[in-house]
Amino acid sequence: MKEIGKRLRNLREGIGVSQEKLAKMLGTTQSSINRYENGQTEPPVELFRKYADMFDVSMDYIFARTDAPEGKMYKFQPKIPPDREEMQKFIEMCFVPGSIANTKLKESLYRIMEEKE
Predict the structure, then answer these.
(1) Residues whose CB falls within 8 Å of the CB of residue 72, separated by 6 or more in sequence, listed in order
(2) Which ranges constitute the DSSP H helices of 15-116?
(3) What are the structural domains of the chain?
(4) Segment 34-80, tens digit of pLDDT
(5) By the 8 A CB rule, do 8 and 36 touch?
(6) 39: helix, coil or strand?
């Protein structure tokens, strides 16, 4: 929680606004901002979203999962059980390699396969 508080403080100080002014911008109180920045209490999820939108950073950055403000990009890597290899070959055969739309469709099919287990 302390690391998240540091991130929130650094974001605020980075644009040079007071806790009071930020509180008004976010629709909360100065004392709440102070508690969040000092790691005393955890902001509600909606406030994390407001921070991310206001400062144009990812939730990964706010939660200190990365030092890159734009966050991490994840690639869905399904784990296909050996008894489903034929299905995987069939799915791969049905789509054009490298197509973004097809990649999303394939991911959906893989997820459906995982849910059926």
Answers:
(1) 58, 60, 65, 66
(2) 19-26, 30-37, 45-55, 59-62, 85-94, 100-115
(3) 2-62 (1.10.260.40), 82-115 (no CATH)
(4) 999 999 999 999 999 999 999 989 999 899 888 888 876 666 565 66
(5) yes
(6) coil
